[in-house]
């Protein structure tokens, strides 16, 4: 991404698109009973509360009535339908992991089978987005968690802790290409959850080969444990290398969430918050998803940035936009054209 002399001036930045992740599949209801929704009505109301607080993107997971993370696509359909009716302008972004929580004590925390994840392209009603990882990596969410941050939660159970410590994200090339094909056929926009530069480079190759033809909505996920860590040099290099036309959100974990979100908003990028990312504030106290959203709204206003409403967020994300060719996709996302046969040096972008 390019930064001009006035790129940090709020009048030259997009409005802030706040993503809320309020369902927190890694936590059990007893970890934060005041904020973890269980019934379908409560889960729909959680989306409404987040929207009214200022979030326009809902990162969606679902729970069963016993409080466990749901792996039932019919439950996803029910929640999507409820949210669509209650807050029609909100961008519904289904978490591509479905639910990575262990089903029982001592069981592995793992993503579901490739075939099950592919079925996210068949959800009815359709979500606006499904998140997709690029490249198989370790996803050890415990690496950046301090003991005092998770004291008293289900993650303190040795079996659960070990399950999350050993978790991986399966996202090999065959699965990624097939999943992108199915999402595009269904006109569901992928939202790319990228773990570092290697993921961004692979995504660019997919675009250059015509495997994906659409807008680039990216989230840099700085949670450590196989992903980039929350070192500012990591995400600044990622930002520098991201295509000029991409829409970029920064995401992290626990006490890293707020400082990274603050830097994102100052740079003209977008934040993500919610109990999936952190249960606590900077002082270690429980902080609800709605409280986190309201905090970001206040900070955005202090920085001089307005917060996008639902329709404005859809325009920024280019929801329902698709491209007809590799060249059109490259140009729309601000990427250098592919090299023509016999062409020397770096191909210049068209005027």
Walk me through this protein's architecture.
By secondary structure, this protein is α/β, with parallel strands linked by helices. The protein is built from twelve helices and ten strands. The strands form two sheets. The protein has an eight-stranded parallel beta barrel with strand order 1-2-3-4-7-8-9-10, surrounded by eight helices. A two-stranded antiparallel sheet has the order 5-6. Strand 1, helix 1 and strand 2 form a beta-alpha-beta unit. The longest helix is centred in the first third of the chain and has 14 residues. It is globular and about 65 Å long. It starts with 18 loop residues before the first strand and ends in a 19-residue tail after the last helix. The mean pLDDT is 94.
Order of helices and strands: EHEHEHEEHHEHEHEHEHEHHH
Helix content: 25-40%
- The geometry reads as globular
Structural class of the secondary elements?
alpha/beta
Report the end-to-end length measured between terminal Cα atoms. Answer: 18 Å
Low-confidence stretches: none
Strand order of the largest sheet: 1-2-3-4-7-8-9-10
Number of strands: 10
Mean pLDDT: 94
Largest sheet: 8 strands, parallel, barrel
Strand content bin = 5-15%
State Rg: 19 Å
Number of helices: 12
InterPro entries: Aldolase_TIM, BKACE
Cofactor: Zn(2+)
Organism: Amphritea atlantica
Keywords: Metal-binding, Transferase, Zinc
